[in-house]
C-alpha cells in the first residue's frame, strides 16, 4: 500500500550543523504529528558547505587525533547515529530521512537495507551496475572494496534520523586522515571517480528522489523553507 507524502527540504550548500538543526525540527514535527494520525515525515537533503568530521555512538576521536583533524581546517561534530568517525564535505549529498518506522511497520534492520537499496538504485540509474551491498556487519553501498555511500542512522521512538552520505565529487583526500567508518583495509570512492566525469550533487538530486519514491513507496512534496 502506498505511503503518505514525505516533505522534501532541499537545503543546498549549507554548514553541516545547520542541516542537523533542520533535521531535529523535522523529528519534533514527526513526533507531534503521530497522535493526530498524520504522517509528518520529511527528507532533508544538503551538501555540506565546509569539511567536517563526525562520529557516532561508538566514540569520539582522542584528543591528539581531534587536534590533528582541526589543524587541517575541518570542523568536528558529534552525531547521534550509529557508526564510527567519517567525513562530510562539499561534493557530497547528505540525506536525512525522518520516517515513522512504526507506522510503516518497518524493522530497523530492514530500514537500513532499504537505504542500501536506495543507493543501489541510484548508482544503477547512473550506470554503475557493479554497485553492491555487503553482508552484515558492513553497511552502505560499495564499488569493489571501496565505499561510495555511507549509512549511519538513529531511531528514537520509531522515528528515524541521520541516514546516508553519497560521495558525488567529494575530495576523497579528506578520508586519508581517518579510518573511515572504522573499517581497516577498505577504501572510499565517489561517483565522479567511478564514472570518469565530474558528477555534482545537483546532478544526482532527481535520480535520487526517483529512487527514494520507489523504495519507500511514497509521494514527495517540496518545501524550500526549512522553518515552516
From TrEMBL:
Its keywords, alphabetically, are: Acyltransferase, Mitochondrion, Transferase
Q: Which GO terms describe its molecular function?
A: lipoyl(octanoyl) transferase activity
Functional pathway: Protein modification; protein lipoylation via endogenous pathway; protein N(6)-(lipoyl)lysine from octanoyl-[acyl-carrier-protein]: step 1/2
Q: Which InterPro entries match?
A: aa-tRNA-synth_II/BPL/LPL, BPL_LPL_catalytic, Octanoyltransferase
Q: Which GO terms of the cellular component aspect does the record hold?
A: mitochondrion
Task: Give the residues the record marks as binding substrate.
Answer: 81-88, 150-152, 163-165
The protein's role, per its UniProt record: Catalyzes the transfer of endogenously produced octanoic acid from octanoyl-acyl-carrier-protein onto the lipoyl domains of lipoate-dependent enzymes. Lipoyl-ACP can also act as a substrate although octanoyl-ACP is likely to be the physiological substrate.
- This protein is called Octanoyl-[acyl-carrier-protein]:protein N-octanoyltransferase LIPT2, mitochondrial
Amino acid at each position: 500500500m502506498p505511503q503518505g507524502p514525505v516533505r522534501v527540504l532541499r537545503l543546498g550548500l549549507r554548514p553541516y550543523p545547520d542541516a542537523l538543526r533542520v533535521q531535529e525540527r523535522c523529528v519534533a514535527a514527526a513526533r507531534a504529528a503521530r497522535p493526530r494520525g498524520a504522517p509528518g515525515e520529511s527528507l532533508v537533503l544538503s551538501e555540506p558547505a565546509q569539511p567536517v568530521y563526525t562520529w557516532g555512538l561508538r566514540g569520539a576521536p582522542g584528543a591528539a587525533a581531534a587536534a590533528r583533524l582541526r589543524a587541517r581546517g575541518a570542523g568536528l561534530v558529534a552525531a547521534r547515529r550509529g557508526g564510527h568517525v567519517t567525513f562530510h564535505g562539499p561534493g557530497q549529498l547528505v540525506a536525512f530521512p525522518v520516517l515513522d518506522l512504526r507506522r510503516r511497520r518497518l524493522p530497523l534492520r530492514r530500514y537500513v537495507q532499504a537505504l542500501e537499496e536506495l543507493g543501489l538504485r541510484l548508482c544503477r540509474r547512473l550506470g554503475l551496475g557493479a554497485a553492491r551491498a555487503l553482508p552484515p556487519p558492513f553497511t552502505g553501498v560499495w564499488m569493489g572494496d571501496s565505499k561510495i555511500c555511507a549509512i549511519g542512522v538513529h531511531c528514537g521512538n520509531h522515528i528515524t534520523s541521520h541516514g546516508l552520505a553519497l560521495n558525488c565529487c567529494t575530495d576523497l583526500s579528506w578520508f586519508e586522515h581517518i579510518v573511515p567508518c572504522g573499517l581497516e583495509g577498505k577504501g572510499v570512492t565517489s561517483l565522479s571517480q567511478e564514472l570518469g566525469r565530474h558528477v555534482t550533487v545537483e546532478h544526482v538530486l532527481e535520480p535520487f528522489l526517483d529512487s527514494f519514491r520507489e523504495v519507500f513507496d511514497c509521494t514527495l512534496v517540496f518545501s524550500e523553507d526549512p522553518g515552516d
